[in-house]
Amino acid sequence: MIVGLGIDLTPLGRVNELAQRHPQFVDRILTPAEREQYASFSGQRALEYLAGRWSLKESFAKAMGTGIGPAVGFQDVEVIDNQQGAPVVTGSPFDGRVHVSVSHTATLVMTEVILESEQKND
């Protein structure tokens, strides 16, 4: 049963500007495993990865109904690309299935998160 849905749209330029102005930005947004994957990219692909993770975590927090803050922080959600390049949630405070999708244009990243409970409502 779907218990949460979150969507986010983020301009790549905004994330690039934040990363340039604040050297700690990447460490604040990405978990250690995400930073390891991020380090394998460069240029536009690295920016897309960083903006995608920012946006996915925003979408996740919206699906939880909290927004980013004390209940759900950037380090509480981890999304790693699998062998085929698809994003997979490998860590989160949600006890159930988490479905994620990310899409990019030249200037935007759009993400969606669906939270699915293992329990059925009778």
Automatic annotation (TrEMBL):
Required co-factors: Mg(2+)
Catalytic activity: apo-[ACP] + CoA = holo-[ACP] + adenosine 3',5'-bisphosphate + H(+)
A GO term, aspect molecular function: holo-[acyl-carrier-protein] synthase activity
InterPro entries in UniProt: 4-PPantetheinyl_Trfase_dom, 4-PPantetheinyl_Trfase_dom_sf, ACPS, Ppantetheine-prot_Trfase_dom
Binding sites annotated in the UniProt record for Mg(2+): 8, 58
Main location group: cytoplasm
Enzyme class: transferase
One Pfam family from the record: ACPS
Name recorded for this polypeptide: Holo-[acyl-carrier-protein] synthase
